[in-house]
Amino acid sequence: MITEKRRSGLKNFMNRNETVGYVFAFPFIFGFICFSLIPILTSFYYAFTDFSMGSKTVEFVGGRNFGQLFTDEIFTKSLGITLKYVFISVPMKLTFALLVAFLLTRKTRLQVLYRSLYYVPSLVGGSIAVALVWKQLFARKGLINSILTQAGLSSINWFGDRKLALYPLILMSVWQFGSSMIIFAAGLKEIPSTYYEAARIDGANGMQSFFRITLPCLSPIILYNLVMQTIQAFMAFTQAFVITAGGPDNGTMMYALYVYNQAFKYNNMGYACAMSWFMLAVMSVITVVIFRTSKFWVFSEAGD
Amino acid sequence: MKIKKGIVKTLYHIFVIAFGLAMVYPVLWMISGSFKDNSEILRGSLALIPRAVKTSNYATGWKGFSKITFATFFKNSFLITAVATFGTVISSSLVAYSLSRIRFRGRGLWFTCMLATMMLPGQVIMIPSFLIWYRLGLANSYVPLILPYFCGQAFFIYQMMQFMAGIPRELDEAATIDGCSKYGIYSHIILPLLKPSIVTTVIIQFYWKWDDYMGPLLYLSKPASYTVSLAIKMFADAASKTDYGAMFAMSTLSLVPVFLIFLFFNRYLVEGIGTSGLKG
Predict the structure, then answer these.
(1) Is the pLDDT of residue B64 over 50?
(2) Through-space distance between the first and last CA atoms of chain B, rounded to whole angstroms
(3) Could you tell me the pTM of the whole model?
(4) Across the interface, do A129 and B148 touch by the CB < 8 Å criterion?
(5) Which of A37, A166, A218, A256 is spaced 20 to 30 Å from B36 by Cα?
(6) Subunit contact A132:B247, Cβ cutoff 8 A
(7) What 3-state class would DSSP assign to A267?
(8) Global ipTM
(9) Chain A residues with CB inside 8 Å of B98's CB?
């Protein structure tokens, strides 16, 4: 009698919403605390210390790390380079993705094939293999230069000039427009064709209906892509690490690469943590600005 | 009128194909480079067809470095990718079920935390995470590359939640009336119906993990434990002259699994990215 009661008590307990919820959510809660929350808090603490690996003592240095950021020439340079990279590559990538998505809306039997073809760069772009190919394409005697010389232009020393070295990296990011394109394509499919018909009856040409119908209807998706790609561009690491290693003369010292170098090359863990917090702040500001301005250009159907 | 339409259509196809080929040209160039002689690659020739087909690049590349062949590197990559992907699917579906179907106290809080981790740049937690694993004595192992994936990945949790929202609740109710517990509903109803979303998760997570460079770079220091991406980079780091042919040969091989999956599951991938707005 008693054991049965107890067993049903356990059964009841196990089937309570609270229990079920926490049993199923446990992996996330565990992971969130161990792999996100604790590291974030530790990182915040380290940002105010002179911590380095192997040192026995950790000294609290207050805001010194943050103060050092503004006297560190490479830091300010890398911040500038990263902002340049973000502000050029993201708009170009999105424009390109949108144009290609629009180009591929035409219904043909080959549509799936075409979309796959244009997705290939995104498919392989993150791999180290393609980064190495890119390095070779823009080499002194690489493919790009042989196209230039064949066209009668002089060849360019892409990775030898600190002003130019960033552009192959920007181009590589733009080249990987595939996933944004697919997201745009899904959005384009949702625009009712009656809108376009109505516009045509009213005498609108292709350009007008693109700017007056397509763009406003897509604006929520543009916002989504803009935010996601901006965050991703800020974190760009592998390309710079593999292709240029930050050179020449720190001309491609992307922020994430500099953080990595400070932490794992120079063992300035505390300083590197301060840098990553500063990056988080910059990214948050930019994201907030995007969201704030979005109400002026994102068209929502719930509104008027 | 009909002829004009035909011309426009043909021009459209020619343009789309030509432009598309220009886009995939670097990839084709890499594949052809894997059959070229080093001197031909270095000359920067535009040609996709090698002057003399040199298949020995694959043999020399496969030999790897200091007696560790690419068989080891591929095995390592497959192991890490497969286990991490498996973990992602299981844990993300469990968490998605709790957040989308169970009304428990604290659900809102955990949902917000999940969204927050989705936006959080990895670099902020990279250094302290490394230090924690280092303290635990696990910095030189596969554990940091695998274990976090058994704790649910925010992107996939969110994607699965959206998919679950489309599974009618009447199914849950009917199962409850038939005496099915909440655990049974997950395993007998939700999980089988979640299949399309699971396929998308498997593909995308496989890609991310397979291509991952920074993780292995941080945590793997012994060449015998290297993944394919770290190993390929070693060609470029070699103190002596870089063997471009061998490097491109192994690069091409490293992309074979990526292309095979794309070929077979293309539809799932395109739909998955389109509907859930996953980054890539």
Answers:
(1) yes
(2) 42
(3) 0.87
(4) no
(5) A166
(6) yes
(7) coil
(8) 0.84
(9) 20-25
